[in-house]
Amino acid sequence: MKDPTEFPLLHLPLLAIKEVLSTLSPLDLFNFSLASLKSKKIAKYFFKQHLKLQYRLWLDIEEELAVGIIGTENIYYFKLISDKTKDGLCEERKLFKYSEDPLSDFKKYVEYAIDNFCWPVSSLYFNLGAFIAQNISIIDWLKFHVEPFSYFYLKSNIVSDEYVSYFLNNIEVDSNLVLATKISDNFQLVLPRSIEILEIHQSDFVTLDQLSSFDCELITLYNTKISNQELNQFFKNWMTSKSNINLQTFSIHIENMESLETIFDLPHEVVDPGTVRTLRRWIHPFTVTGGIDIKRDDGRIATFFIEPYMEFLHLVMLAH
């Protein structure tokens, strides 16, 4: 990691420096701290005196590595590149840095931000196909240097059973998991109990038994092989409190409107199409017109409606 050019404002009085620093973006502040040992000390002091600047890091591990800085309405990025012609280029809140070894320098930037500014890593986007040979070592590095994630997104175009399992067995996750990876049909997904939100893009490996074991508050499944009869059983189990007690929001692809006849072959009520209710979709208010209601044995209601998604139909359940 090379030091950038010395910043002229280092020659200003300390009070003037503070005033200038308060106008800079977190990306500029971070870059300023790399100028010299003196600028590093000034930047660290500035952050300690301005606790309202509670920044967090977003790690983007794919072919083009990036360290995002979150804490304002915008996300600022350091992007590690192997193209010398783009070194130092600024573009839409992004600063490009040339590196002969982007992955090693990426780790250095992250460790520097954590060690010097105490910025936690809250989010991770990890393409498991970008550095296949180093996936295990990257996960080991994350385990050693990074605090629990609140959100992570795993992606790949390769079958990733081994890496997904290794990740979940070694990385602590606070709440939110998105799986956009290729998974083999016989994969058994075992989730940490801390995961509250689960979204699976290629969920054809998910069986009824696996779905029933997911103790999440929000579940979204795309490209599923779960049948209409199995969905019918899934909702019957929910109604009798046999599984998924904590489920609040559920969304799953269905083939067509005729599927509802099989799925709702259970006690239910068709709500008048003129009835408009404000429910909650996860934590957000959501208006539902009409719908289908089922009741759990403890009195809790779940309302269903159909939502178009691209060329598919999704059956959405909101418990209330």
Portion in beta strands? 25-35%
Radius of gyration: 24 Å
> Total number of β-strand segments?
16
Number of helices: 9
Count of spatially separate domains: 1
Helix content, binned percent: 25-40%
Give the biggest sheet.
14 strands, mixed
Which secondary-structure class do the elements indicate?
alpha/beta
Q: Could you state the order of secondary-structure elements as H and E? A: HHHEEEEHEHEHEEHEHEHEEEEEE
Q: Please mark out the parts with pLDDT under 50 across 5 or more consecutive residues, or reply none.
A: 1-6
Spatial order of the strands in the main sheet? 4-3-2-1-5-6-7-8-9-10-16-15-14-11
Shape label: elongated
* Amino-to-carboxy terminus distance: 53 Å
| Average of per-residue pLDDT values | 89
Commentary on this structure:
This protein is α/β, with parallel strands linked by helices and 320 residues long. Helix content is 28%, strand content 31%. It has helices at 14-21, 26-33, 37-49, 102-117, 135-145, 161-170, 208-213, 228-239, 259-263; strands spanning 56-61, 65-70, 76-81, 94-98, 121-127, 149-159, 173-182, 197-200, 218-221, 249-254, 269-270, 276-281, 284-289, 292-295, 301-309, 312-319. A 14-stranded mixed beta sheet has the order 4-3-2-1-5-6-7-8-9-10-16-15-14-11. α2 crosses α3 (37-49) and α5 (135-145) runs parallel beside α6. The protein is elongated, with a radius of gyration of 24 Å. The model is unreliable at 1-6 (pLDDT under 50). This is F-box domain-containing protein.
Write a compact overview of the structure shown.
The chain is an alpha/beta fold. Helices cover 28% and strands 31% of the residues. The protein has one domain.
